Amino acid sequence: MATPLERRRFLKTGALAGAALVGTPAVAAAQTAAPPAAPVAGQAPPPLTHAVESAPPADVQVLGDNERAGSDYMMDVFKSLGFEYFFANPGSSFRGLHESLINYGGNKAPEFITCCHEESSVAMAHGYFKAEGKPAAIMAHGTVGLQHASMAIYNAWCDRVPVYVILGNHADAAIRRGAEWYHGVQDAAAMVRDYTKWDDFPWSLTHFGESAVRAYQVAMTPPMAPVVLVLDGGLQEHPISKDERLPVPRLTTPAPPAGERGAVDEAAQMLVAAENPVLVADRLARTPNGMTLLIELAELLQAGVIDEGSRMNFPSRHPLNQTQRARAAAADADVIVGLESADFWGTVNAVRDQLHRSTRRLAKANAKLITISTGDLYIRANYQDFRRLQDVDLAIAADAEATLPALIDAVRRLVTGDRQRVFQERGARLAQASRAAAEANRIAATYAWDSTPVSVARLCAEVWAQIRNDDWSLVSSYYSNDQTNWPRRLWNFDKRYQWLGHAGGGGIGYGAPASVGAALANKKHGRLSVAIQTDGDMMYAPGVLWTAAHYQVPLLSVMNNNRQYHQEAMHVQKMCNARNRGIDRGEIGSRLTEPNIDYAKLAQSMGIYAEGPIANPNDLAPALARAIAVARKGEPALVDVVTQVR
Amino acid sequence: MELRPRVGIVGAALVAIGVSVHAQNATLAKPVTPAPGSAPAGKVDNGGVLYKKIGCYQCHANEAQGGLSGPRIGPSLVPYARFSQYIRNPTGEMPPYTTKVLSNQEIADIYAWVNARPKPPAVDTLPQLAR
Fold it and tell me: Which domains does chain A have, with CATH numbers?
């Protein structure tokens, strides 16, 4: 709640700014009765009149000794929240906050990271969160900047990633200057309200302080999601007295909701009694402890685990990992537990995408289905991220990671010696099946091994051979490997930061900036960040390469350059066939050829070490070795590999 | 802009050429050697051109080794009769190719090409694939 004093100051300083910004003496000199008196710190400036508007500034206006900027207080609050970075393309509507960040705040914690597109700003913050586990902020104009940023915000929302969005805007049309001019907005956050969790437009600094902390709390409470704070330009720029007490509210992040005890006990009973239980994890692991807990539960039950891959939920080479034979594992199951499964219907059913679509159940008809998900606590109407309603036997509306300790305890209480023997036999069978699937993957990778262009399997095998002894992090392989997923088939993932999932919303243009954001987070930990980067994604906002070079972000980007929007070509091919015509024209509109894009030159033009294009697989290993040496020294590097389709 | 499909247990619903397994497990299927004399003569070179031109490679990858939405189909995996039957009447996700858009001879050419794909090196000779 704004104090009366603060509210008065806001109004009167708005008038002051108006006086300062619109003076055009030649036009309105005749209307000028008398020049306004120079404002005195601590005294009310004159009301906004024609005379004031048209008068020249009476003096040089700088902060008085007893004053500070409103945005200095904002920076106090932001620092208290622990932000490491503010990602932004600079914009005049938040120039006050920008100045406070670099001067008052010392450009450290948070540091301003210059981005070349607001979509990149958000995707960088998205990738940063995945690697670091805490949010970053982005700044953008409330009008044009947010429109650029909106797709990436949708991605983050679908992926349940808390991006902290700060928008600049001038609500008071009377004091808008050149750049804002008539480009203001009454309700800036409206255009992203369908896919953000909360927003506010503070009217005072007291209001700001509380909303800034509240926004952080809301964003970080599962289900996590982006939040928006609209900061009025006047509120940022108006002086306030240093004597005015503006406390910084204390941040208390709420504990996430855990499952109700009775329901958890019921789930435990079903799991212990099951012959073939399967645990399906998607956005389960919010923290490093999430994977630890899932390992504990799976080993206790000797249950198979399917990692759907939105987070790093389970080690790829754990004997109970059945991801590489997921369909068979699910079809055999008599109990299936979805743990933050974004699309549980799609887990137990399939759609056949032909001219006349059909669906069928993949799980056994009598399989017991259980869900533990914050999805039951949060759903929106317009922009959707839910699929068909799956009827289940038990739905627990709770955060799955927070619920696992109670579920583990409940299972432990129920396990008898007889059941343990059953579990051990089951575990041995699953381990054998897992080994067979892994061996099949190795053999599958040998096909087309020496062909040109390079197969995606060969590309991934060559990268793995050179990084396997590093402390590595695959920061993105978006649209490179989501389904064929060669890294997950061949590499040994056993740390949370080694697999960072995907965009969430399906928006292309995520991979390149998310890689740089995640690699920036990995930098202080000394990790070698690797991205398998598709060409189509890179072309959305390649300016992020400059950001990587400028901030010396250690990142190896290996281009998976198949010179087309491959997935779209498959969709159009399907349409051609279904309509029984033009089956040799399906690539039209999806190719990225004539001319071919030279990604090495693109990267080099922005100061990045780069090689390529490489189409011969035998040239790949030496090029990777040189590029990895650059990345290990703390710089970005790119290798352009001309590849087969996925 | 494209939307990413669901990547779930069965998100890719990949069934083609009678190999009813997920594409990632396609190599689990035992190779089936075509019976001698069962396939009509096909022109390998034309088959390679067609394989690319009519989009087979989009799902089965450039060398028929299996890819995003289709399993491995060569070399020497499926009898000709099953191969041609499935192209005409797929039961999974594969789009159908009718006689209006693809002749029997063209199917034979494609079959000749996929069966002419080189055999891969032994997995244990590739250090990049060492466990």
Answer: 4-54 (no CATH), 67-241 (3.40.50.970), 261-439 (3.40.50.1220), 447-642 (3.40.50.970)
